[in-house]
Specification:
- By secondary structure, the chain is α/β, with parallel strands linked by helices.
- The protein folds into two domains: about 240 residues, Rossmann fold; about 35 residues, no CATH class.
- It is built from nine helices and ten strands.
- The strands form three sheets. The chain has a six-stranded mixed beta sheet, with helices on both faces. The chain has a two-stranded antiparallel sheet with strand order 1-2.
- Strand 8 and strand 9 form a beta hairpin.
- Helix 1 packs across helix 3, helix 1 packs parallel to helix 9 and helix 5 runs parallel beside helix 6.
- The longest helix is centred in the N-terminal third of the chain and has 29 residues.
- The protein is elongated and about 90 Å long.
- The model has no long low-confidence stretch (mean pLDDT about 85).
Length: about 290
């Protein structure tokens, strides 16, 4: 049974993100994420100005006058959210956990997709795939996606993005738009991203918390690995210790950015201590210009 707290969160997210998707993103979404391929509609008589390459020569020969094939863009899309549920996403030092922010962002994008009559699905993963929701349409289905994203209790603690991408290829047979939402505490995923990017429109949504990048002066503190691989004691009052932590965090972030760039992957970088609306609007605007 879902707790009253989770239901309250779902309701708040639905109200907030539905309005946001309508006001800010629905137009950009439609222009940025377009259908792939053309769908045959009918054959009609050739009219002056029609492209000669559209002529259906079989029908033309049969009827004794030129006919052309008419196509429309296949508008309907499938949107898949690959949502990181690992232990490191159940962390937050400001107003919310990384997982809460990740779910809210998915809800905004799902609401925009629903307003365009697109299908939405979810793969929730840790070091294994734990949740799969088949892509479908409708607001009730989006509610189900949000509910699972918030309420699922993960069995695993680590992160295996490559395994999640391989699972995606098995369960979704056609090309789709994939939002990979994670803090990317993982290794050796370049090949998996490159392979998935050749088939799907792959977008990274990187979620972080301020303490991922720096630690405060709080004396001797115990730090636990983001995904349960051990603990260490740290003297955070030592400026050099804090500076070394910051440098290593910045190097890790730069490595992630280089990874996305090397595989030609679009990315959004969101933080739990900052509003995400402007970042998302900027992402859509830049992608629209490039398209």
């Amino acid at each position: 049974m879902i707790s009253a707290d989770i239901l309250k969160k779902i309701k708040r997210i639905q109200i907030t993100t539905s309005k946001m998707a309508t006001d800010l993103f629905s137009g950009e979404y439609k222009s940025v994420f377009k259908g792939r391929g053309l769908e045959f509609v009918e054959v009609r008589e050739y009219l002056p100005g029609d492209e000669v390459r559209s002529i259906d020569w079989n029908v033309t020969a049969r009827m004794g006058r030129p006919f052309i094939k008419k196509f429309i863009e296949e508008r309907q899309l499938t949107i898949m959210f690959l949502l990181d549920l690992s232990r490191s996403t159940s962390f937050g030092t400001v107003s919310r956990l990384k997982r809460d922010l990740a779910t809210e962002v998915c809800a905004v994008l799902a609401a925009a997709a629903t307003s365009n009559n697109d299908r939405v699905g979810l793969i929730g993963f840790t070091d294994g795939v734990e949740v799969f929701i088949t892509p479908r349409k409708g607001k009730a289905h989006v509610f189900k996606v949000i509910r699972e994203a918030l309420s699922h209790t993960p069995r695993g603690s680590g992160t295996d993005i490559a395994k999640a991408l391989r699972y995606l290829d098995r369960v979704v047979t056609k090309s789709c738009v994939v939002f990979l939402v994670s803090d990317f505490y993982t290794r050796d995923i370049k090949q998996a991203l490159s392979i998935a990017g050749k088939r799907h429109d792959l977008v990274a949504v990187h979620i972080s918390d301020p303490r991922d990048m720096e630690i405060p002066d709080a004396g001797v503190i115990e730090l636990e690995s983001a995904e349960g691989r051990g603990k260490i004691w740290l003297d955070s009052s030592d400026r050099e210790v804090r500076e070394r932590y910051r440098r290593e965090a910045e190097a890790r972030m730069e490595a992630v950015k280089r990874l996305f760039y090397s595989v030609g992957m679009d990315a959004m970088f969101l933080r739990t201590d900052m509003p995400y609306e402007k970042t998302m609007i900027s992402f859509f605007a830049k992608r629209k210009m490039r398209k």
